[in-house]
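Box 3.1. Reading complex inputs
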Amino acid sequence: MTEAFPSALVGPSSKERKYDRQLRLWAASGQQSLEDSRVLLVNSDGPWSKQNTGVSGVVGVETLKNLVLPGIGGFTIVDPAVVTEPDLGVNFFLEEESLGKSRAEETCRLLRELNPDVEGSFQTKPITELLRDPEFLPQHKLVLISGPVKRSTLETLRKAAKSLGIPVLYTRSVGFYSIFSLQLAAVFPIVETHPDPESTQDLRLLNPWPELAAAGASISNLDSLDGHQHGHVPYILLLLHHLEQWKETHDGNVPSNYKEKTEFREMVRSSARTSNPEGGEENYDEAVAAVLKSLNPFSLRSSIREIFEMEECTRLTPDSPDFWVIAAAVREFYQRHNVLPLPGSLPDMKAQSADYVSLQNIYKSKARKDVEEVTELVRSIEAQLGSRVAQVSDKDVEIFCKNAAHIKVIHGRGIPQVNGDAHSLKALRNHLSNPESLIPIFLAFEILDDIVTDIQDGKRPEEVLDDEAVWEAGIDRIIGVLTSDEPSAVDEAARERIRKAARELRRTQGGELHNISALSGGLVAQEALKVITRQYGPLDNTCIFDGVRSGSEMYKL
Amino acid sequence: MASPDAPLRWKHLYKVLTKAGPFSDEDWVPGQETITSLESSKLLVIGAGGLGCEILKNLALSGFKDIHVIDMDTIDISNLNRQFLFRQADIGKPKAEVAAAFVERRVKGVKITPYVGKIQDKDEDYYMQFKIIVCGLDSIEARRWINSTLIGMVDFEDPESLKPLIDGGTEGFKGQARVILPTLSSCIECQLDMHAPRPAVPLCTIATIPRQPQHCIEWAHQIAWQEQRKDDTFDSDDMDHIGWIYSAALERAKQFNIPGITFQMTQGVVKNIIPAIASTNAVIAAATTSEALKIATSCNPYLENYMMYAGEEGVYTYTFEAEKKPDCPVCGNLARNLTVDSNMTLEAFIETLGERPEAQLKKPSMRTEEKTLYQRFPPQLEEQTRHNLKLKLKELIADGQEIAVSDPAYTIDFRFRLAFQ
């Protein structure tokens, strides 16, 4: 009780005040994860040629800005480039005095000014060189890459991060287009997905546990109540009461289909008192409105069933992450009871204070009991598994139980490529046939990556960035890959869409526009925050933004 | 106007201004003329907060040279998690001035003129000088005010009088950007019901039957303060005042056995705090400024006319054309239909106008063509019409009758046709 009713006035600390507006989204636990994380930004892989400094890296710096402000633990900027005049026209985190200096150093300095709580450092060596130090990459919880980057560099970095289980966000922002992909571990579980509160209501009205059923039975004297009391019986109890009545005339069955539910709804509606001055009762209105929504038998969502059937859940090992130990316990709970642990929250409703609080307590104590049972299951699983590094915390079990119906596991994939696996190829072909799809932009970026790779390898001069023939050849090559085992897969209209996207992309010859990079930096930071805090739902796995048509699409490639 | 190193500095931007793309208008002539027109466009930014800071930065780096910014607020510690032009040492200073000075210092050649005050301080002559107005506000009321002002300014003889309004808004991981061409496309008022206010808790719940911690906080804020500290003006930025509300709410919650009150929640309820983060602001602000660049230069087609964004589950945007409504009280010429219960008193009806998504008027006065139903100012008129408050609607007006509603927050009248249920 002391926890529920703090007696001393404890105002917020200055840190809580500074971060107030975001703590309301990801709470202290999310903030802690953020502060415990260091991110790596690979903002360029060196110049493309003598005249062209290559990627301006605005999108990378803008992404970091959106992570430094909310208080990420630290960041490292890797960027061999030197600040040139065009950088000043597009990058806000450089100033006149930065000209000629290391871009990594200057952007690092000006980003650090944003938040004294954040630690920042920089490296002017190319990333491939830095990766030779085995200590370098593991300091980071997330890798951000600003492209287009030479394919061999991307591959090396991507693989190194994958082997360490570090997520990667590969972003390209050129002209009016941007694209980014998230590479996650093959199995990436999330407990706190923050679903819409409406969709999380689990009231168990069709299969009440004994205490709830007893509460429903306690209002059998409805007719004897005075107007005020009658108008304040919580609608949950009204529904339970009328369900019992219904069962008496329906062989003990609850209303199960739409027709029966509408009939039941009328039965509830007709029990409201209408002779009062208001001509009705709000609690009955609430009961009527809840019939179709709340009178559904518990059913396990297919996504949760899939998680329960995953090998990670069915074959635990001493090294299994806590998530899977708890998931296995909850699975056992489900097998015993055919329901998940009760979340225990109760929506607000017309009721007297004391009646509401006691009903709320019935839900809360059931939820607590379920948590206790799952905790016991966790402990016995731990005992069977033998030596584990640390015990699963009670708090984690509790959070898991509260969110059990909405947990999520993302099956992470690599950074997509046209030359990638069969899944990518098929997805690309399918989307390409839709005239509204943004996939032509993805393909145009793939061609750009090829061209940049050739330039960086010294195979072509930088002028080819806007060379019609080179781009046409690139389009041919990509269409060749897409149609290799299905010659009719790309028609002339689709080819024209790719050509148009390529022409728009060529307009700036690889250069960034500040607006598009700022917008994309916002989107990428948002994904970074979700990955780092392990809250909400990260991208799976590619997002394309079209600044010409002002919209985006997500693709699983 | 452009300095000799401009072509090099603005290399990337100039490429889209001097070269047509596959989607730019066929009649558009790229080149120096476009650059000159961009650099001579005077823009107004309303709001120098979460969106405003980003908007100012983006416009400066989009090549605009003459930008004005209006904001009446001063910098608070809770701004620092996203309003990146402000530092700890700036707390208490006016946002517009600090933001303008910062961007001017950072981006060579841009002039940013701050005005610390309300948008309502300025008249039509002031707004007439701008080419485009970009809004980053957290208040629906201010948006509605600028919207109706810009619509009122349109003179069909003078194309220059039509000022595109680009509006951004955010809440947590969500937001929207929209482009409004006053009188030509759907306006803020047409779209009002897409942004419904949160329903208020009934006063009787707060006064007699609290169930949620929020109800106890509302009680302390709306009732206890009035009763016990009526000589002190409540200031939601005063930590001692919030502290008092918190203690009073806790006391009440204890009485009713309601757990869960925290200081953070107290602040949230009392100040109606909306969660806000840097990343969402970055997305929405850049969405608005990208449209500003496209409108000012024609380098690509602009948004017609609404992009909504939600970032909780991956990245979701939905771009569509919101419809212009013929019964829009601001840009339409028909009265808007409101279905009402004819047995409702005028007083109850007036209360619902604050919450009805299609009205959202907090202090309405109203009249029919023949008579005044209720008039708040001046006091003599209020006294004369007060007795109507207790009358039922059917005793005052006929089914289908039109009423004109005014509200001190807006300069125009809202026309509603009341249809009885």
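In summary: The mean pLDDT of chain B is 93.
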